[in-house]
Amino acid sequence: MERRITGIGVLAGLVAGIVAFVYARIFIEPQVALAVDYEGVRSHAESLVTGEHEHGHEIFSRGVQENLGTGIGTLVFAVVMGALFAVAFIVVWAFLGRRSPSTDPRFVAVGLAACAFVAVSGVPFFVYPPNPPAVGEEATLGARSGSYLTLTLVSIGLMVAAAVLAFWLSERIGGLWAVVAGAIAYLFGVTVTATLLPDFAEIPGPVMDGDRIVGPGFPGQVVADFRIYAVADQVLLWTVLTVVFVALLHRVMRREARQRGPSLVEAGI
Amino acid sequence: MSVSIQAAEQPRALALPTASAADAALWLTATVLLAALAYYFLGYDQGAVSVFGSDTHVHEFVHDARHFLGFPCH
Ligand SMILES: [Zn+2]
User: What does the domain layout of chain A look like in residue ranges?
Assistant: First the structure.
C-alpha cells in the first residue's frame, strides 16, 4: 500500500513538473532573459565607473540553462513534492482512516494539498518573494538561504501542529471552529516567525558616478512579472499534482473494491 | 442514530497502511531522506553551502529553476 501510494505521488509530481516546466519556459524564462540583459548593462556601467573589467564565465550556455536546466530543476522539485506529499498522505490516512473509516480519502488528499501549498509555497513566497537573477547580493546569500529554509521548515512544522490542534478540538467545538482555530494558530505562528527573521530588500538601484546616474536601476516591471509568474507556476504545479494524485488514488480504490470480492457487489453493497 | 451506525459499518474506501510494520516505516523514512537530499541539491548546494567545495555545476545547471522556485540566489 505505502509503495503504491508513494508511486502515485512520484507519478503525479512528474506530470505536474512537466506542466510547470512548459509554463515556466513560456512565461518565466523571458523575464530571466530580461534580468540577464540588465546584468550585462549594469556590469558595463560599473566598469565605466571603476575602470575594471569583469567577465563572468558561464559553465552552461543560456540555452542549456533555460531549457534542460529549467526542465530538470522543475521536474526534480515537483517529484520531491510529489513524494513528500505521498508520505504525508499515508501518515494522515493511517490516522484518519482508522478513526473514521467512511471518510473519502480523495477529500483528505485535496485538503492535505491545500495545506501543503500554503505551508511550502504560499507563506514562504509571501515573506520572501522569488527574485529574478541579478537582484540578490552575493554577501547575503548565506543569510537569505538560512532564513528561507528556516521559514519553510517552521511553516511546515506549524501546519502539522495546527492540523493536530484542529483534530483535537474538533470533538470539543465542532469541525468548522476547530479548523478556524487551527488556521489562526498557524497564521499567528508564521507571522511571529516572519517578524523574527531578517528582512532583505536588495533590488539594485541605479549605478552612480558621484551624483551622475551612469546605469539604470533594476527594471521594476521585470521583478513584478517574475514574481506573479513564479506564484502562478506553483499554483499550477500543486493543482496538477493534486488532480493527478486524486485520479490515480481513485483507480487504486476501485481495484481494491474489486479485490475485496464480488460477493459485496452481488449483495448489492 | 442509524446514520452513525451505518457510517461505522461502511467498508473503508482505501486500505489502511500497515503503519506498525517496520517495513512501512523504513520505506517512508527512505522516501523522505531521498526527497530531502534532492531538495538540498536543487535549492541549497553550491549556493550558501556546498558538499563539493568550489564546484558550481549543479548550481549553474538548475540556476533558472532555482530562482523561480523561490530559492535565494544571486
Ligand atoms: Zn542566481
Answer: 1-87+131-136+211-266
A123: Cα within 13 Å, side-chain hemisphere: 30
H-state helical runs in A24-122: 29-50, 62-64, 70-99, 105-117
Interchain contact, A253 vs B13, CB within 8 Å = yes
* Residues B71, A127: Cα–Cα separation, whole Å: 12
Smallest CA–CA distance, residue B53 to chain A, in Å, is 15
> How close is the Cα of A33 to the center of ligand 1, in Å?
12
d(CA A245, CA A241): 6
- Say how many Å lie between the CA of residue A137 and the centre of ligand 1: 10
Report ipTM for this prediction: 0.90
Distance from residue B43's CA to the centre of ligand 1 (Å): 11
Closest residue in A to B23 (Cα) is: A2
Question: For A213, phi and psi rounded to 5 degrees?
Answer: -85, 120
Query: How far is CA A16 from its chain centroid?
Result: 12
Rounded to two decimals, the pTM is 0.89
* B1 at interface of A, judged by CB pairs closer than 8 A: no
pLDDT digits (tens, 9 = 90+) for A83-136: 999 999 999 999 998 888 889 999 999 999 999 999 999 999 999 999 999 998
